[in-house]
Amino acid sequence: MIRFILTKLGLLIPTFLGVTLVAFSFIRMLPGDPVELLAGERGVSPERHAELMATLGFDKPLWEQYFSFLVGILHGDLGTSFSSKQPVLEEFFVRFPATIELATCAIIFAALIGLPAGIVAAVKRGSAFDHTLMGISLTGYSMPIFWWGLLLIILFSSPDMLNLTPVSGRISALFWVDTQTGFMLIDSLLSDEKGAFKSAAAHLVLPTIVLGTIPMAIIARQTRSAMLEILGEDYVRTAKAKGLSPFRIVGIHALRNALITVITVIGLQVGVLLAGAILTETIFSWPGIGKWMIDSISRRDYFAVQGGIVLIASIVMLVNLLVDFMYGLINPRILHRRS
Amino acid sequence: MIKRGLLATAAVAGMLAMGSFSAAEAKTLVFCSEGSPEGFTPALYTAGTTFDASSRQVFNRLVEFERGSTTIVPALAEGFEVSEDGTEYTFNLRKGVKFHTTKFFTPTRDFNADDVIFSFERQRNADHPYNKISGGNYEYFNGMSMPDLIKDIVKVDDYTVKFILNRPEAPFIANMGMDFASIHSAEYADAMAAAGTLDDFDQKPVGTGPFQFEDYQKDSQIRYKAHPDYWSGKAPLDRLVFSITPDASVRYQKLKAGECHVMPYPNPADLEAMASDSDVNLMQQEGLNVGYLAYNSLMPPFDNPKVRKALNMAVNKEAIIDAVFQGAGKVAKNPIPPTIWSYNDATVDDGYDPEAAKALLAEAGVSGLTTKIWAMPVQRPYNPNARRMAELIQADWANVGVTAEIVSYEWGEYLKRSKDKDRDGAVLLGWTGDNGDPDNFLAVLLGCDGVGGSNRAQWCHKPFEDLIQKAKTTSDFDERIKLYEEAQIVFKEQAPWATIAHSVVFKPIRPEVVDFRIDPFGGHVFYGVDLKE
């Protein structure tokens, strides 16, 4: 077990270095001068331009800038965002709870609907339900997020239509909830404001659906495929022959094995959700890291972008590592085979 | 099954949400702002979004622009005197002005001359303890040539401050009304320095303005409370909330749903629907801006005014107003908008006349001309669709035998490359005024100092330069008007730009909002605004 963990951790080091290199070079490959963008139409004189570039350290050779970046990471310093003038690490972690809150709700929503739907579709293979579900999941998978988000807003939030949910944000502007944990559901519960929690919960509904739609479709399809494969196995046939109830066969014997595939998919989706909530966050004015990254890229805020990418990639790597460990817990044979 | 699930979830949440809206009793105005502020010290930043969140609510300046106009009015200074030679400005400060008492700072004294000295010395003096804090870039202070202009700032007594200038500069007072000239609390700065939290000074603002900062949840909300002891009287609103909503379509939906009361920058495509929407009062006003096409007057054949005028005459500006601005603009003939004093309505525009343009080109000895039109990659208030505008100009020029290629670059690159003196082609760009002074357009965009920089036409024409320099140094207002009017005539004769349009600014607000006024500088000022019960 220890060897397994050490091997996995050892693999993280070159991956992490690769990520730092990609993050560092990616933003610098984009055309655009950060100082000019900052100044806008007004512009800056060539002398002032050179002075600002020197202040930001962009006058140094690239290898030296990269080396400073690596040294900074080792010291827990990802630099200072030159648009907000705040440390990148602080900027990131102020926004991270919002993304985690949304991603958690989205993955729970996706799993709660996708998993049972996939199981039922597999059990009732070829039925009308199966075809309908696969059609819907394909549609969900192909749905352009921006369009889907706006459509739901118009349908559910517009006073001319259903007028059921709030349009965007994390809580109604009428509630003044102090930030304690950064998780609005928790902060609103801790606050004295009556109705704040309800408002926070209501604000989560549409973004959760929009962000959870694609993972839900993927989970449903993967669960169905995994279950179909397992249901065709000899031991399932044996279990049927022994007269076990369909619930025991599907719910305990088949599902446990199918879960390995499903957890892999969910694990991958967590990474996708953390990094890929950009569009959902933009549509719903959700103050998470996705929106912050987009803003930072458009401002050519080099330190914010490279620091943000490294942090997101690190979190995704850790989640994948966790998924690897979970395989072992679900099916110890994997652990033994690998170690 | 999935659809049913969605509907059920949404319905439950919707009922929850509806219960939440009766929560607050305070009179709260919600502004769906378009983006996050970079910080709360206006001198450090250049974005209007930051000014909206800081200088326009939390701070005051010595003099300010009257709400909804470009007229300078007294603010923290009750008045000022200018010396005979125009190089000394003595401000008499208002007494009894209170700074905000917040969760993080309790002032022990009223506003005085130390606060004025602190606010300017921080930007001016590289050795000031706050100069390097938060990046220490004071782009507006530098951009308005303040370091060269200000010789000294002297505290005469607690309520009198004298600015000594190196040269007479008539727009100086207008500059003092700009956001970078906001007055901070020196006592608060000292308290932060003593606590070793200098950086917090720029993130948790304390000012004398009508609203006091309460809290900022990054990228989400900014909260303000009315300053109870505001020197000009407490604001009619109790609370002000900026709900940060970057997408214009979502802002509109929030406005319709009553989740916000005022929204900036509507989608041009939504304007028609807004105009007929009973939930929306669509306000509009001519913007303090100009969109133009700047030739490179250093490069032949554009160094010949006849060629520039001929190309101007080939452009059908009315068609551009219809197609690009969808009617929400006005043809520009001068380099300053009509809302600015000294606008010369007597100038005659180079009217659309392709035949005359052909003749003028032939007279200038130009045939088979090929050039480039630079189209901005971004939407700006003075040009909502530069690519479309460039295509229309390209087609117009083709009619007079000029072949133009449209080029574009990423915005930062565009701004940088378009400054080059040897740039090939004509550049589409524009400007929104900072302080309502003609100098802010004419000197910045067409003055000799701007060549290789903000003067994209690279045009340095002595008769024009003499006029604007003279206007800058004279303090006789009528004389300044005459000089600027004359400068506009010279501009029209020389035609370094094709002046295209002044756009109309739209501001959708809820019907219950009372006395909101469109700020000519593109900002959002909420002091004086009320909500119907």
Main attributes?
heterodimer, A: 339 residues, mainly alpha, MetI-like fold, 2 domains, 76% helix, globular, B: 533 residues, alpha+beta, seven-stranded mixed β-sheet, four-stranded mixed β-sheet, 30% helix, disordered N terminus
User: CATH topology of the largest domain in chain A, which one?
Assistant: MetI-like fold
Q: Report mean pLDDT of chain A, rounded to a whole number.
A: 85
| Molecular shape of chain B | globular
C-alpha Rg of chain B (nearest Å): 25 Å
CATH H-tier superfamily of the largest domain in chain A: MetI-like
Can you count the beta strands of chain A? 0
Helix count of chain B equals 17
Structural class of chain B: alpha+beta
Distance between the termini of chain A: 6 Å
Taken together, the total number of domains of chain A comes to: 2
The CATH class of the largest domain in chain A is identified as: Mainly Alpha
Q: Tell me the number of strands of chain B.
A: 19
Largest interface, Cβ cutoff 8 Å: A-B, 82 and 76 residues
Query: How much of the polypeptide of chain A forms β-strand, as a percent range?
Result: under 5%
Helix content range of chain B:
25-40%
Fraction of residues in helix of chain A = over 70%
**CATH architecture level-2 label of the largest domain in chain A:** Orthogonal Bundle
Quaternary class: heterodimer
Keywords (chain A): Cell membrane, Membrane, Transmembrane, Transmembrane helix, Transport
Domain ABC transmembrane type-1 (chain A): 96-327
Membrane topology (chain A): Multi-pass membrane protein
Pfam families (chain A): BPD_transp_1 (PF00528), BPD_transp_1_N (PF19300)
